[in-house]
Write the structure tokens for this entry.
Amino acid sequence: MAKHNALFKALDELHILIIEDNMSMIKIYKNILASFGVKQVSFSTTMEYAQELVKTDTPDLIICDFILDGTNMLNSGLAFLKWLRQVEHAPNCYIPVLMATGHASRRVILEFNKYGATSVVVKPLSPTILKQRLNSILGDTRNHIVTAGRVSIEGAISHTKPKKRDRLVYDPGFLSRMVKNNENNNKLEQKPNKIELLVEEEDAFDMAFKSQYL
């Protein structure tokens, strides 16, 4: 087990790599990060160049957009994350990755966690939320676990079991029989034609997603 490379560093000590294909968005990132005191920022608009920067510059933290090229899934933020989290790239495989997306669906978040994203930030960017995510990552002491040559993060949100269903019985005559038989509840009469309701518990993923990302 291992910790990520930026653990307990200060924001002004970080070298952050931004992977984003929109130059206007890169400028926004740079301005926001500069306001946080971050002094060293690199950027790449493609997965290929980002891979080279990881090998040569070894950033402390990566902010990676989900969709780098909407027509090419091989040049996407998720493809980069899968590449980075291969243990053959150690120690770079432990670099924390903040995935950025405007598509914060359940499926997308599950994919990020499955392939080792450290955290997720939802667009449009809020400087306050971005700073919270970065500080959270810098204090994140979760272990990185290697399984079948890939790195995952201990305790990350993953696929959950199907929703649990409980059967509740609604019996309109119950209260009146309770009053009628209040001296001996063991003699409560059983009435036919009860109505069964199916009640679903709130999904565990939904609760965890709301607490971490909303």
Q: What stands out?
A: The first strand starts at residue 15 and ends at 19. The two ends are 30 Å apart (CA to CA). The chain has two domains: 11-153, 165-203.
